[in-house]
Amino acid sequence: MNKKITVKNPFCSGDYVVYPAHGVGKVSDISKQTVAGSELELIVVNFAKDKMTLRIPMAKAETTGLRRISGADTMTEALTTLKGKARVKKVMWSRRAQEYENKINSGSPVAIAEVIRDLYRSENLAEQSYSERQIYEQALDRLANEYAVFENITADAATQKLLDLLAK
User: 3-68 belongs to which CATH class?
Assistant: First the structure.
């Protein structure tokens, strides 16, 4: 029994994509592989920073949240969110941390910008706890990587632009 599953391919080799749980990666190949008697079309995504390769079945690409780099409207909204006033809820840190992690793993640039905005501390404010700092840096890294691909600049330059926006 050799089933063949084919799905329309929205991605091409060389495209930059966002996988919600891992951030920005580059499609290195679209290949066919036989798994358990079924031929699957797989999107092979490389995450250079993590030295990781992910193979996503074409049929599951949409349900896993794999998407192209955000467009100008979404990026503008994310940058506007960064400039906004921090909204920190008065709930226990563990609950807020979980909400922040969920926003980061959603892959949405606007949600990630909210996390960065809420956890940002300027030089003259109180220190962050270790876990706050970790979540903040993870969110900043994710948004900076997507912004870098969007603007066609280095990740360091993108990080600096985001930090400049936050400092205003």
Answer: mainly beta
